[in-house]
């Protein structure tokens, strides 16, 4: 789907403009835009007849929402109990070495963004991470670097096509 | 669409026959739970479909045409996630582990066409070190009590027909056809079922309170937030048997008199959401959900609400606020949700696993159910076991099983001959127990007696290599971030306690800090509004209680496990150092000096403990003490 307001409108319609669906709506809008811009928040607020401050309140409360643009590939490193003990910190270091960003940051070309999450529920494969919808488990710093390299390669290949 | 009870009974009987026939035929079951999916199970699934599709062209030769129809089935988590992707071939029961895309042809050629075992793909039992033919042959399997996880490797997670073929929805039919709501509640009360969401509150009493609240509108809510890092049994259950949870919820709705329900599942669990969504649609299709269910006049429908990643939303009042589309902030109780929940209406809220127990209790009857577990905590409990053990994944055991049995007999003990130091149980609000507690029976009351709790059931095994002060710091970091900020003791207290713990791991703490930490922990516990704040100090209190000597050692400049960087000292062994000078060149802080050809030295004042020099030295002369 495109990053248009028409698409946002479709999502709103799907949920019948019901205020109780705010979280769901924001989740879907974010999937589309990769973050929640000021404009989009205002748009949703008007549609649901809510004060924008209230929508902001919800958007800032939940860890899943981001008010800053995210990368094409959103990397979520799990720093839950199991992953922390199995070395999630070294993965974060490896990512920084490879693409130069820390948790909460985005690469300049908007290709990658990095965040930490509580637990992905894949603890048996700790340390784990998710990139977009793909779960990766039993990671080592080397494996992470390899994955990032192949994603960067893939992306370029797509562009030249 | 099943129009009445008779049709439904007949449908179930028919599904049983179909399923039995299926199990006698060749079938491949592939685990597509999160663990196995992360290791490529979906690719293996597609490959099987592809190969079987292609082979169908040559079926005349192998006469496998009948079996081809829907031969590949998706099954739910088998609890051996660390060995995934897992593939089970029925009717033989062959249990293949670590199956890659490349192994598919092999399995098709040898097992499907000729019925042979592919020896090299069989699971290795950790006890005998031998390959075992089927899951049922492993100690891992024999020592568990699969009850809500019945039918491992023989069930399809995305098929309502398969669920009914296993006798699913019979309990709902029994309830609708022959039990009054009060009788259902009495049965649950008599079963002694306690909430699996952490507190262990008697489920029957909660149902009764909701039933007794006078209102035309009532709700039933399923708490599938599972924000505990290290816990994934709710996710597993929703992925492997969504109908079991659904059936429990429908029965609950009938018992308390609710018309509408919500299942709150966190957005981080996409597969669970997808499975549950399909289950809801299938149940609606067959008329088990919606208006006038099976012509009995009882109506109930269900919607999924996605959580968006806030631990505090697992707390029931916060969760309800979140369903209403608000910030998920807890509020004081009473009124309890049973009196005033969603939009002020009476609301029953239970955990995923709690609901999953309900159809079993109705099916087996109270007496049989109570044979499992202990008198005070009947039934079984799923635990997720992580940490340096040989088998990480989900186990299901009856209450009263000990930690030692779970960690050593079922999960195979620790990897690489490491020694166990502690067990963290119950998530961030839980406690760290020591080896002394390994033989304690796990049940709600015994755990409470040592200030621990079952929590949602996360068990994290901690080896001697881990520093307990750092463990406490890690949990406080979590609760500090997750505190909703509404009340001061929780918001400021956890931040303050965190700062003190940071001082400990950075070798900057004093006696004074130890005293303050203990004082703060007790204060936060008593003065916070909701369960998050009230339990946030548990990791501190329990580590202070069982591992106090580690805190004291940190005051004396030692980290007993040797894992806190601040306590590490990098030294060059004079005897091994050749004086090549490479380390001095790579040290980012200019901490190493010397004269070529003679042993170099590290200035501890300048060293920032990055460890670079250790990697560089080709003569292994640099040691960490
Ligand atoms: C901070 C906090 C987090 C919680 N998280 C969960 C959770 O993730 N899942 C859950 O079922 N219960 C959770 N609970 C407990 C719920 O408030 C509630 O007691 C439970 O859902 C009731 O269901 P049960 O009676 O079936 O256990 C949490 C409680 C607190 C205080
Ligand atoms: S105890 Fe913590 S999480 Fe609970 S209401 Fe108070 S600030 Fe919020
Ligand atoms: S690299 Fe090793 S051998 Fe060379 S000077 Fe440093 S410690 Fe000595
Ligand atoms: S650990 Fe790092 S800072 Fe310390 S001496 Fe070695 S290279 Fe230098
Ligand atoms: S702790 Fe990382 S997936 Fe659960
Ligand atoms: S996800 Fe396959 S065994 Fe757990």
What's this, in brief?
The complex is a heterodimer of chains A (161) and B (625). Chain A is of the alpha+beta class.
User: Which regions of chain B contain 5 or more consecutive residues with pLDDT less than 50?
Assistant: 57-70
Multimerization status: heterodimer
Give the rounded overall mean pLDDT of chain B. 88
Please mark out the parts of chain A with pLDDT under 50 across 5 or more consecutive residues, or reply none.
155-161
Approximate shape of chain A: elongated
Structural class of chain B: alpha/beta
Query: Can you list the ligands bound to this structure?
Result: flavin mononucleotide, iron/sulfur cluster, FE2/S2 (inorganic) cluster
- Using only C-alpha atoms, the radius of gyration of chain B works out to 28 Å
Rg measurement of chain A, Å: 17 Å
Judged by helices, strands and strand pairing, the structural class of chain A is alpha+beta
Mean pLDDT of chain A: 85
Helical residues, percent of chain A: 40-55%
Estimate the helix proportion of chain B, in percent. Answer: 40-55%
For the biggest β-sheet of chain A, the strand order reads 2-1-3-4
């Amino acid at each position: 789907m495109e990053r248009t307001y028409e698409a946002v409108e479709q999502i709103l319609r799907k949920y019948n403009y019901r205020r109780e669906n705010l979280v769901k709506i924001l989740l879907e809008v974010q999937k589309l835009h990769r973050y929640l811009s000021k404009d989009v928040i205002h748009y949703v607020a008007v549609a649901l007849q809510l004060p924008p401050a209230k929508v902001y309140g919800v958007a800032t409360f939940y860890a899943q929402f981001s008010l800053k643009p995210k990368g094409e590939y959103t990397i979520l490193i799990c720093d839950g109990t199991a992953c922390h003990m199995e070395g999630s910190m070294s993965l974060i270091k490896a990512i920084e070495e490879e693409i130069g960003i820390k948790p909460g940051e985005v690469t300049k070309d908007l290709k990658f963004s990095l965040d930490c999450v509580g637990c992905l529920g894949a603890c048996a494969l700790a340390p784990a991470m998710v990139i977009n919808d793909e779960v990766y488990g039993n990671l080592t710093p080397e494996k992470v670097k390899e994955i990032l390299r192949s994603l960067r390669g893939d992306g370029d290949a797509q562009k030249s096509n | 669409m099943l129009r009445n009870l008779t049709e439904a009974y007949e449908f179930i009987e028919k599904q049983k026959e179909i399923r039995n026939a299926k199990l006698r035929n060749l079938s491949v079951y592939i685990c597509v739970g999160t663990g196995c999916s992360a290791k490529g199970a979906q690719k293996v699934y597609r490959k099987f479909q592809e190969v079987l599709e292609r082979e169908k062209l040559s079926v005349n030769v192998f006469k496998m045409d009948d079996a081809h129809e829907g031969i590949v089935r998706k099954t739910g988590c088998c609890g051996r996630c660390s060995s995934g992707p897992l593939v089970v071939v029925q009717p033989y029961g062959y249990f293949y582990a670590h199956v890659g895309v490349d192994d598919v042809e092999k399995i098709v050629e040898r097992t499907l066409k000729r019925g042979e075992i592919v020896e090299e793909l069989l699971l290795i039992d950790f006890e005998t070190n031998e390959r075992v033919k089927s899951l049922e042959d492993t100690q891992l399997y024999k020592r568990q009590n699969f009850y809500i996880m019945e039918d491992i490797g023989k069930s399809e997670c995305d098929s309502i027909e398969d669920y009914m073929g296993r006798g699913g929805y019979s309990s709902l039919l029994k309830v609708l056809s022959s039990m009054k709501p009060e009788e259902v509640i009495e049965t649950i009360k008599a079963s002694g079922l306690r909430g699996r969401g952490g507190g262990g509150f008697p489920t029957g009493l909660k149902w009764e309170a909701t039933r007794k609240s006078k209102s035309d509108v009532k709700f039933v809510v399923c708490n599938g937030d599972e924000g505990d890092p290290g816990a994934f049994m709710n996710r597993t259950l929703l992925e492997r048997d969504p109908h079991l949870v659904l059936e429990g919820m429908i029965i609950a709705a009938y018992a308390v008199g609710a018309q509408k329900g919500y299942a709150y599942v966190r957005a981080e669990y996409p597969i669970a959401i997808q499975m549950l969504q399909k289950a809801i649609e299938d149940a609606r299709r067959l008329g088990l959900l919606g208006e006038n269910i099976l012509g009995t006049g009882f109506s109930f429908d269900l919607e999924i609400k996605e959580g968006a990643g806030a631990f505090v939303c697992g707390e029931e009042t916060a969760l309800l606020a979140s369903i209403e589309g608000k910030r998920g902030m807890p509020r004081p109780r009473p009124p309890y949700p049973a009196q005033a929940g969603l939009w002020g209406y009476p609301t029953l809220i239970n955990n995923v696993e709690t609901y999953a127990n309900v159809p079993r209790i109705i099916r087996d009857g109270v007496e049989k159910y109570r044979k499992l577990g202990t008198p005070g905590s009947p039934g079984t409990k799923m635990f997720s076991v992580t940490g340096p053990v040989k088998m990480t994944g989900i186990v299901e055991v009856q209450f009263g099983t000990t930690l030692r049995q779970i960690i050593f007999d079922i999960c195979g003990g620790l990897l690489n001959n490491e020694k166990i130091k502690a067990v963290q149980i119950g998530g961030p609000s839980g406690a760290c127990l020591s080896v002394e507690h390994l033989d304690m029976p796990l049940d709600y009351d015994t755990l409470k007696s040592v200030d621990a709790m079952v929590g949602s059931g996360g068990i994290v095994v901690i080896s001697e290599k881990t520093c307990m002060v750092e463990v406490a710091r890690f949990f406080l970091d979590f609760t500090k971030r997750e505190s909703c900020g509404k009340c001061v003791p929780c918001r400021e207290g956890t931040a303050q306690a965190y700062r003190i713990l940071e001082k400990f791991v950075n070798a900057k703490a004093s006696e004074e800090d130890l005293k303050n930490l203990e004082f703060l922990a007790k204060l936060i516990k008593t003065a916070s509004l909701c369960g998050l704040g009230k339990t946030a100090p548990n990791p501190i209190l329990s580590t202070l209680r069982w591992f106090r000597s580690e805190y004291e050692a940190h005051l004396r400049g030692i980290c007993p496990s040797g894992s806190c960087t601040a306590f590490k000292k990098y030294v060059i062994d004079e005897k091994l150092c050749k004086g090549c000078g490479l380390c001095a060149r790579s040290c980012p802080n200019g901490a190493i000096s010397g004269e070529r050809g003679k042993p170099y030295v590290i200035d501890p004042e300048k060293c920032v403990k990055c460890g670079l020099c250790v990697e560089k030295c080709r003569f292994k002369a640099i040691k960490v003490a």
